[in-house]
Amino acid sequence: MLRNKLVPYTFLFPAFVGLLVFKLYPILDALIQSFYAPTFITDVKQFIGLRNYTELLTDSVFWNSVKVTLLLNIVINPLQIALAFLLAMLLNRKLKGIGVFRGIHIVPISVSVPIACILWAIMLNPEQGLVNTMLVWLGFDPQPFLASKHQALWTIILIATWKGVGYWSIFLLAGLQEISPSLYEAASIDGAGKTQQFRNVTFPMLKRTLTFVAVADTVANFLLFAPMYILTRGGPENSTNVLMNESFNRAFVYSDMGKASAIIIMLLLMLAVIITLQFKFLKAEH
């Protein structure tokens, strides 16, 4: 009897070890390192308490990275979720050739982030890129895109949206297909139109899935780093310097692991607050 009770925990144990080693331990290590000064000459660490945090609070570069991170997420999260939801609604319809379209829409998912960034960098080249070639052909002026401090962040938002919308639409499509057709039939018999069916059937039944997508998408975008590192290195003029990129710079460019760790801890705290608010406002039932 005891053996049967232990079977589920045996299967969960490797996942628990992975969570402990690759998730919880790095966070704990970052928290500890955030209380120490950088060691440029000697390996002896100097405990400085909260100095890394207080110095960051008066650092204009840090606050700029906070602003860029929040702006990125304020735009990209609703954009990705809205487009993913519309795409899922389309994919859920029984249309001719929808099977082929379902296969095509996940192509961006199959392309790795570094390769996708390199391809977009080539296409967005200000002088010889495909996108500017098409703009000139259509009669528009060529655009700097990633080379402009006014366009770089918005360009990365579009690239990340292209990469992520298909992925999140899969979860929403699965949620839509779990809704029983009998609920729509009952609503139709009661005289509910398409709008009323969406408001009273689709949205309530999809609330849990939407909550998961909203939270997971927020986490993914707050930790977004590869596009900035590959395409802009945080530039031009720190216009794409998100907190993850700033932490990388502090750690591996300026060799200040203490401040890099402090940035990560502050990012995680910010993320925890935002996720808590999301759960509160979405009122998901668990």
UniProtKB/TrEMBL annotation:
It is a multi-pass membrane protein. Pfam families: BPD_transp_1 (PF00528). GO terms for biological process: transmembrane transport. Residues 66-278 form the ABC transmembrane type-1 domain. It is found in: Cell membrane. Its main location: membrane. Keywords: Cell membrane, Membrane, Transmembrane, Transmembrane helix, Transport. This is Sugar ABC transporter permease. It comes from Paenibacillus thalictri.
